Every structure is written in C-alpha cells, then in structure tokens.
Amino acid sequence: MPWKIDAALATRGKVIFERDSAEGGCSGCHGIEDGEQRVPFIKTWRTPVQNVGTDTREYDVLTWKAKTGVLKGAFIPFATAPLKENDEIFNILATSVIGSIAEHLLAGGAPSTNARVAAAPEPGSSATPESLGLVRLPPTLQDLLTAFDTASTSEAIKTKRQGAERAFRSRLPPWGSYEARVLQGIWAAAPYLHNGSVPTLAELLKPSGQRLSQFSVGRKYDIENVGLAATQEPLSETLSLTDCSNINSGNSRCGHEYGTSLSDPEKRALLEHLKTL
After folding, report:
1. Whole-angstrom Cα distance, residue 224 to residue 275?
2. Selection from 151, 158, 27, 2 nearest residue 79 by Cα
3. What is the model's pTM?
C-alpha cells in the first residue's frame, strides 16, 4: 500500500472485520473462502449474491433488450440458440461470457482467432455445428451451461413491479440482488457500492440518510477516509445522488447498512485494516 499503516490499529480492525455481519463485521460476505472447483487447477472464491438494499437499476438492465451487432447469430453449440438481431441483454451476456471462457480454455489459454464455440452457420445454410468444426463443451466446462439460464421467455418467471410486467429468468436471484466482492485492494476501488454512489469507505460506514448527496469525481485521494478526496481538481465531474426514496435511479446511495452502528474508534480501526488488504 502507498502509505504507512498503524499496525496496532489495523490489528484491532482485523478483529472487527472478522465479526459477524450483525455486529459490524465484513468477512461473512467479503472474506476469502474457497468456492467450487470450476475446471482443473482453477479455483473460485465463494461470494454471496443478495439484496442489501442498494440501487436496483443495474439489475433491471438484465431484462432489457439490445441490438446484438456483430454478435448476431452467435451461439454456444449444443447449448444456446443463435442471438437475434435484437435480443435480451441476459442472452447476450450469457453467450459472450460462456463463449469467451470456453474458447480460452479450449485453446489452452492461448489467443484464439477461431471462434469455435460462438459462431453460427450462415442464414439459410444447412450446415451443422459439427460440419463447421464446432465442438461441444467438454466435461470440465459443463457447469457453464447452468451459469446462465437460457430458457425462453415463455419459460421465465413473470413478476410485477411498479405496475409493469417484466420477465425474469428462473435462475436470476431475487430482484435487486448483487454479488458481494472480496475486499482485496478495496482501498483503490473508490467510489463504492456497485453503482459508485459513495465516495469513501468512511462514508459507507454511515447510515444511508447521512451520506453525501453529491460529490466530485477525480484523482485526488483521501487517505484518512479511504477514497475520493472531498475537493477535486477544477472542472471535475460532480455526481448527484438520490436517497432511499428512489433506489431505481441508477445513482441511489441507499443500502449496505453494515458497520454503521460501530463506534467511531471501531470504524477508524476497521478502515486501517481495510487499507492493508
């Protein structure tokens, strides 16, 4: 880290970090724990997906549709249908992510110029995936088929919110849920929350209603509060935020109330520990 650490204070902060989340701790959601073994020699971390009351706009994006552009017709052989000219963002994401991972591993980690697992026959062609040299996902990659639910809209779960009917896929987590991240390097990841609505970690440890309603985004750093400095360079962009009355704005500072009940000395200790990660 680019600054001197108060070792004694950081040690006290580590104890707080490892507490249960109900007591202001972080490790229950953000600690490093081994996850599933996805493929040989590649491990994952277990990171929970849950709704902690934060902004919901990014989640809603998964239900939108978009033009697929150069990805039109792309598909995962024997796994997904070719992408339409306008398709659901969830389908585009699934095809892109699964295809990229599969190609990388099938190529032995080397750069690949042959889109073996994400190419479709020309329209009207009688060619099959096999005749084009496309391959099935090997056993070590079969879990990718369930990483995204690619069921058709008719098979999706439908729910109503704010008077509008939206189709949600059966494998999607509850509305407004996001994956927690491990906190390695968190001191360098400001602004915070998935939508970047909180400028510092110190601000994140305040109740939502007490957090800043706007802040400037720039290069100046606040070492004490761990994040963006309150005063930035001239002409820096100012981000205006909404409160918990509008958590679907894309810029709501609401949610993630963990650690807000800690005492000021406990918060300082926790921040010192987070600087070491």
Report:
1. 10
2. 151
3. 0.72
On whether the CB atoms of residues 173 and 47 are closer than 8 A, the answer is no
What does the mean pLDDT of the chain come to?
80
- 231 close to 216: Cβ distance less than 8 angstroms: yes
Tell me the CB-side half-sphere exposure of residue 115, using CA atoms within 13 A.
14
Token pair belonging to 61: 């994006």
CA angle 173, 171, 39 (to 5 degrees): 100
Q: pLDDT at residue 228 above 50?
A: yes
Distance CA 104, CA 110 (A): 7
As a whole number of angstroms, the distance between CA 49 and CA 119 comes to: 31
Q: pLDDT tens digit string along 25-73?
A: 999 999 988 887 766 667 788 888 889 999 999 888 877 888 888 888 8
